[in-house]
């Protein structure tokens, strides 16, 4: 049915059945025009902001009457022609410009996938393939620095490339928009903001936990959620915790968050952290080769935060600038470079583990390593354990002595010196040391 016929029928029914005061119909309804955005989305173009405010009071009446005419529920918004034209021109300008992503844009291609985030990655790709389906809203949660924002940006960028109209906002940006509209004290400002957001096919909101206890903003937010879900348009949210653990939200909001799919991004596992480090090394263009055991060491000790990993690689890059291109960055370089950086390793790499690995190799007990026996096997195990405590854990000689039965620092230095000489002189012993080191750091 033509838009004009739909509107004429609606005006006739409103007048005949006296659903709205006749003065309002004559002043604001009969002088308005109906604009069709899609089969389920209409905008009523009103002559004045006052008219927009008044007709919004009868929005439910319009929706119900449209249903009787079209045999289906539709979305109805009210706007002045000036506001609508301004928004429409912005959209046309965007469509007329071929979209290319800037260098360094966050995409699915440069999102490193591992066991800790593969579920969230799959869900994100699913909403791109089938927007507005059962995964609506998509709610991604996890600690800071694990890649939630990267994934939300990847959704935004891919949806834009697919010619979808997308709005991405942080919770701070969203709150600022809503508060500014509320502070103007004009209902038409609120309606204009609703229309601006609802005109999108994807609405992506980062860090929704910061909307906690913002009652007026959340009331507006709840209306936006209803509009998107009712019209089959995609919502994507991120948070630092699951919906159930969010405080300062109405139960109905938590229910909405849970009505689609909630999926976590967990703490980085070592293999994924290693992949991210290798990717960052390649992306940053580090000229020197980095040995694998050095990468593994970084992954094991600094894998709690993607942002931290990027900072560590920047330090590697600066280290590389100061050295010859032929210099290979090895484990010793990395240990020395990051000796003052707090480790994220939760005690997995410690003296006890070193002793256990070495004791198993030499078939001796941990008690023997800490004791006073001086058989060749026990002495080698003890001295090697001290050596690894120095080069892997970067412990001082005093710290190491305390871990080995209270020995003084000169005894520790002598033991480490002996191992270094054996490594230099005996190739087979050097191979044993390399094998044990790899086992200790989990290579």
From TrEMBL:
Residues engaged in binding ATP: 145, 147-149
Subcellular location, principal: cytoplasm
Molecular-function GO terms, alphabetical: ATP binding; DNA replication origin binding; lipid binding
Subcellular location: Cytoplasm
Residues of the AAA+ ATPase domain: 134-259
Superkingdom of origin: Bacteria
Entry remark concerning the domains of this protein: Domain I is involved in oligomerization and binding regulators, domain II is flexibile and of varying length in different bacteria, domain III forms the AAA+ region, while domain IV binds dsDNA.
Assembly and oligomerization: Oligomerizes as a right-handed, spiral filament on DNA at oriC.
Name of the molecule in the record: Chromosomal replication initiator protein DnaA
Lineage of origin: Bacteria, Bacillati, Mycoplasmatota, Mollicutes, Entomoplasmatales
Gene: dnaA
């Amino acid at each position: 049915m033509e838009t004009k016929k739909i509107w004429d029928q609606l005006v006739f029914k409103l007048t005949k059945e006296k659903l709205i005061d006749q003065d309002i119909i004559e002043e604001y309804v009969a002088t308005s025009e109906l604009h069709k955005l899609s089969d389920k989305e209409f905008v009523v173009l009103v002559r004045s902001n006052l008219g927009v405010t008044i007709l919004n009071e009868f929005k439910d009446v319009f929706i119900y009457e449209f249903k009787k005419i079209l045999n289906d529920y539709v979305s109805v918004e009210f706007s002045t022609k000036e506001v609508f034209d301004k928004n429409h021109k912005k959209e046309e300008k965007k469509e007329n410009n071929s979209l290319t992503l800037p260098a360094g844009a966050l995409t699915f291609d440069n999102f490193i996938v591992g066991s800790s985030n593969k579920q969230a990655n799959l869900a994100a790709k699913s909403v791109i393939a089938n927007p507005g389906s059962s995964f609506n809203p998509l709610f991604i949660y996890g600690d800071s620095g694990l890649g939630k924002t990267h994934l939300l940006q990847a959704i935004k960028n891919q949806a834009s490339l697919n010619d979808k109209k997308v709005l991405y906002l942080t919770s701070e940006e969203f709150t600022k928009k809503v508060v500014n509209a509320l502070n103007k004290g004009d209902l038409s400002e609120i309606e204009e903001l609703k229309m601006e957001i609802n005109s999108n096919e994807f609405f992506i909101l980062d860090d929704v936990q910061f909307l906690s206890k913002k009652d007026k903003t959340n009331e507006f937010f709840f209306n936006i959620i209803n509009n998107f879900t009712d019209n089959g348009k995609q919502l994507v949210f991120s948070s630092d915790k699951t919906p159930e653990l969010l405080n300062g939200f109405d139960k109905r909001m938590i229910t909405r968050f849970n009505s689609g799919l909630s999926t976590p991004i967990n703490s980085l596992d070592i293999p994924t952290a290693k992949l991210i480090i290798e990717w960052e090394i390649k992306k940053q263009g580090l000229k020197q080769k980095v040995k694998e055991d050095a990468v593994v060491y970084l992954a094991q000790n600094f894998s709690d935060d993607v942002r931290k990993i990027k900072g560590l690689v920047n330090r590697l890059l600066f280290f590389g600038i100061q050295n010859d291109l032929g210099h290979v960055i090895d484990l010793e370089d990395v240990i020395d470079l990051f000796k003052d950086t707090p480790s994220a390793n939760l005690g997995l790499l410690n003296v006890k583990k070193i002793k256990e690995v070495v004791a198993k190799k030499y078939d001796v007990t941990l008690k023997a390593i800490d004791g006073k026996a001086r058989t060749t096997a026990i002495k080698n195990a003890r001295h090697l354990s001290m050596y690894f405590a120095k080069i892997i854990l970067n412990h001082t000689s005093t710290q190491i002595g305390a871990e080995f039965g209270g020995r003084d620092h000169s005894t520790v230095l002598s033991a480490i010196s002996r191992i270094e000489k054996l490594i230099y002189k005996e190739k087979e012993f050097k191979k044993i040391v390399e094998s044990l080191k790899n086992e200790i750091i989990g290579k």
